[in-house]
């Protein structure tokens, strides 16, 4: 390919306008052209395309982006428009490239005709939206990924459809190449990226055209030569002239295409392959690889390969990866190796060094490329180059190791002459021809000096050399058979290595997953992989059932080899013993294991024997009885020997010789190793071990090794006994401990029994936490966990009901400790918070516990309730973060639990006044406890907890919710609910005194309220002030925090019969916004609580909302100092006593009161015991409530 300027061609660019030829239609006016192009653009496959706005035809960019039409039809439509008016068609194509770059600007026809490309690009750059860095090629999502594919396909189809005429008109291609060249040199990344991709795909399409032209030229030349070589009489001169004319035309087209490709390559590729953006560099390298593979005669030379070689040193892994993949496509074709020889010699060292690249993907592709080079020419890589790849089979990154294993297999473990190797194996009497390859594998493993990583080596070779690694017959032959003449004998080190590799291959085949440290974990096997695993397991089992006893017999004196061989049975399919009637091989194996135990005292060997017995003794296999008999006989002999040697040692005491010590130590080591995996309690090893330890303490002459082994054996003995004791015992132990704590509690000294004070035991905080944790772990469990942990049939309903009764008893025992003040009441918070979730199972127990604790201490009970809500809120914050979705089901669940708690306070407001005030006070303090880390102007992170204090969301008006979508909404909602409560209570009082006069009864003989202290004018003022102070009237005056005004003291108006507007707030002080956020907010809301009648109404809302008639609620005050004044005030004013409405009484007959403690069933069986009453609930009936 020559420089276009050297060929005398004119410089690429948009040519001057030419007059239309006679066979073309007359040129239209610009307006007509615009309309014509719009019409043409709006059709695809003969159907008009419309956008979503007003039904106008979509642009070429939108057609390609939507991808609903085939690119063939889109391109054909554009070609038709180009034939009608090429200026407007090119304008459409230019705007297509501009819009694909993400630019909102549009090139107009005047700009196209009167401005140079540089001016047009500068104008488009000014209209580019620089606020966002995204553009179509970089936008995420499947739609834009599809757009990129459609964009590339459009360019390819465009050149393919135009390859016979339009691309040679010296107008369309010149214009497009000139535009893309200018855009590729832009400072705007979007222009540069998009135009480079378009130019590279355009180049690829042109290379395909050039290749087709070259083929046509060759065919024409052959036809011409054939015709010319004919004798003069048979030669057709006219045909020769046509062939010459055709060859000349093809040559001209070839020159024109080469001219275009040179323009793109020198104008765009040479500058962009080293662009600052890695994506652009990757595009260039990817496409040049395509050109070299597609048209190797023109591009596969050093002039183009050097760009790929230089880019191998790119600092971005993405670009290096594209280089390697491009080279892989070339090295795959062996016919291209001669052209790649110089490149290989020049850049081989760099490619080999990239096998250690920090990017694992790059390293994997580099190893694969080196493997391709090895396949093409074994002499291309030196031994040093190969060794650099060999050690990567031990890499912790599995893809790298597997790729290195493929290289190792190609280099060392591929059979070069299979027929000759099979003939040699037959002459030596072996069934497998892989003997030499296995020997080579052993040598490689030993020379790598990484013996502890045999499992890694096997895993690396598993995908490429499975046939070799699964040849267990050959491995066994090498270990068992004597070497034939002419073969070297396996050394002891080589035998150990071969046994270790054999065990690793068995493990890999049986488990079908990489070893520990390779991969992220066990993946789910496919059906095919699962079948292969089963077949391999059966194959290795059938082979080693017969071979393992012989291997143990040969190597029983070598502890290292025996320890490895004894790992094999754990991978057996033990059913094969009975299914294949191979019990004689089992007896042979047990005999060899017994001999190994008697010969060795090494810990690893004895533990391997113990583990093998444990596996063979599995109850699921029919061979268990046979193995258990053999094991018991072995233990009996060792126990008798141990007891006898201990007697001799203790009798001789200080006179014991080394033989006596060795006899005790060797036998004790064997028993200790077996005691680790087997329950040897019935042999009572603890007694003799204790005698040894006691003698050592008293006499001080016991050898250290014997003392250590005796301690170890005693330890195992105690552990096995603990296992027996604790099986199914935790629940019983818990119940026993609860009963003991109840018996020896502070109630022990009641009734004049102060003399028993020393016996009183109060559990400390640690014990209380342990009890609570036990309840949380064993009581509050999901049904799925219960079913999984339950033995037997999971569908057995009787077992499930029995398990539920057991858990109810555990919960009742712990709640009993809380009720009688043995366990601190705050521990009940963890119980109360499960009230809603486990209502069907434990709702009655938790409700009764709540009722009893409230009778004990109302204030502490209220603190416990708010603590349980706080715990749930904190758990929700940990799960969802600080930005809570206040409409989620989790938040609604906490609100519903708060509403249920509120209903348990009952209707006696005088008694529960302080408890409710304490609950709100703790809730408010929790809401403002932690400052927002972003600054004081942001709400506290727990502010949303205020909504939990509002039992129903109806206290917040819908209009305010729509208008106030800010983070302070919980505070505003809570504040308005407080103010709303006071107003509605006042309205209920006045309405009750006016409309229900006939039903009003005096208390303590006092006259009715409307006859004392209330006059008509004052009553009118009260009504007006209550209406004006309601939340509906004040909704428009709400302010955000920081400008929140002091609310009117509505409840004070009720008490003193004065208008609210004349009542100043003596306690409130104006403050700054920060003061309000940190401290004054709490003070203000607490002040609201002191002067409103809300909290009672809030916690009774659920009982009142369905009543036909309002029920009077008294004023609540949180200050103990004002309690006496409050009582005096109620003596004078509280004379209204409304009876329940008939509707309420009728509903009470139809449904149970779920918060009436009298509705619970008494447990007579529990109350008759010597312990205090457990709970007013039956633990032997299904959980539920008695609707009385």
Automatic annotation (TrEMBL):
Query: GO cellular component annotations, sorted alphabetically?
Result: chromatin; chromosome, centromeric region; cohesin complex; nucleus
User: Coiled coil: which residue ranges?
Assistant: 233-263
A GO BP annotation: cell division
The keyword ATP-binding belongs to this UniProt entry's keyword annotation: no
Basic and acidic residues composition bias: which ranges? Answer: 1014-1026
- Biased composition regions of type Basic residues, renumbered to the chain: 1001-1013
What molecular function terms (GO) are annotated for this protein?
chromatin binding
Name a Pfam family for this protein: STAG
Question: What is the role of this chain?
Answer: Component of cohesin complex, a complex required for the cohesion of sister chromatids after DNA replication. The cohesin complex apparently forms a large proteinaceous ring within which sister chromatids can be trapped. At anaphase, the complex is cleaved and dissociates from chromatin, allowing sister chromatids to segregate.
Q: How the protein assembles, per its UniProt entry?
A: Part of the cohesin complex which is composed of a heterodimer between a SMC1 protein (SMC1A or SMC1B) and SMC3, which are attached via their hinge domain, and RAD21 which link them at their heads, and one STAG protein.
* UniProt similarity note: Belongs to the SCC3 family.
Protein name according to UniProt: Cohesin subunit SA
